[in-house]
Amino acid sequence: MIFDNELFYERILELCRVAGITTTSFPLTHNQSPKQVVYIESEKDILLTAYQRKQLASIEYVSHLFDIPSDAFDDTTEKNKISFYSVVLSSTLSERSQLAADTHAFLHTSFGSEVSIVFYKHDDYTMLSMSGFGHQSILSDWFSLYDELDDLLYKLDISNFSIRSSKAFYIDFVYNCARWYYTHPYSYDYAALELFPVDYFKENDIHDIEQEQLEELIRQIKNRAVIEYGDDYVDQDDITVTVTSDYNLDLELLLLDIDDEEQEQNPFGEDPYEDDYPEDDLDEYEYADIDSELFNDPILLMKWLEKQDKQG
After folding, report:
1. What contacts 24+ positions apart, CB below 8 Å, involve 262-265?
2. What is the pLDDT of residues 196-211, one digit of tens each?
3. How far apart are the C-alpha atoms of 175 and 164, rounded to whole Å?
4. For residue 120, what are the β-bridge partners?
5. Of 82, 149, 266, 297, which has fewest CB within 10 angstroms of its CB?
6. Alpha helices of the chain — where are they, by DSSP H?
7. Radius of gyration, alpha carbons of the chain
8. 102, HSE (Cβ side, Cα atoms, 13 Å)
9. How many other C-beta atoms lie within 10 A of the C-beta of residue 268?
10. Are 110 and 38 within 8 A, CB to CB?
11. CB-CB neighbours of 100 under 10 Å
12. Between the CA of residue 271 and those of 70, 259, 260, 267, 276, what are the distances in Å?
């Protein structure tokens, strides 16, 4: 039996109520399409690569469960809310963690809040992804929706988190929920202590250890997380970067400046081949920053154009 994807948001909202993180009984939005969230709801224009658009198609539902407002924290100088979401994935088992990390990267940009915490669902399992304060897609373990929700509830209990500030809350949340290799990353000092406890050489001679054996033991310690998590292991360096149209505009302006400099150095003044350029190129450039995915859905394209018109 697989838990109903359409009701996943209700299950997670109830879990958060029991944990004391929220008191709300109804989500802010529920079971929206990912295209609606990225292209229409977002305050920023997100530029997705072909690979990211393929990942977007692997999301079934996005629900905005609730926000913890900035005034819920003791520090009144911080104006950061913390937003909670649920997302239903449709992918292979081996892809689920990397897909969650990558999609949260561009969804976080779409959400528009400093901190977003997403409960991902894949088959009968759920996992958290946490992004905020310059860190993106920090993952938890996967928890069975059948018999491991009590373990997750223990981690989510409101008593585990500081309410001094939104940042303090987020740090506690990550520390309580993240996979161990995020909070206790590998280091050579750690490897040395793991291999040789403080009193190790009181009873052992260092010359009894073969160099190759030592190197193999260090490799095992260094790769412990990769071995333990297998396909679910996600390296932060492997998360796809999300680009917005603001970034794209800056890049185009930079290229324009370079073109101007080259034009000044042209002994002929104007481009002698200017009349050979087809006029269609101007229209193509005009719409270059529009995600091609919009052209496949006329309704979304109309909503996007209406949104652009309202923004002036």
Report:
1. none
2. 655 555 555 555 666 6
3. 16
4. 87, 127
5. 266
6. 8-19, 34-35, 50-56, 96-111, 149-156, 166-177, 180-183, 188-195, 211-222, 224-229, 245-264, 280-286, 298-311
7. 25
8. 22
9. 7
10. yes
11. 29
12. 55, 11, 12, 10, 10
Averaged over 122-128, what is the pLDDT? 97
Query: Tokens representing 152?
Result: 């997750």
Please list, in sequence order, all residues whose beta carbon lies within 8 angstroms of the beta carbon of residue 161, skipping any fewer than 6 positions away: 168, 169, 172, 173, 176
Q: Quick: pLDDT tens for 134-151.
A: 888 999 999 999 999 999
Tokens of 32: 């929206």
Q: Is the pTM of this model over 0.85?
A: no
pLDDT, one tens digit per residue, over 34-51 is: 999 998 888 888 888 889
The total of other beta-carbon atoms located within 10 Å of residue 273's CB is 7
CA max distance for the chain: 86
Structure tokens at 4: 């109903």
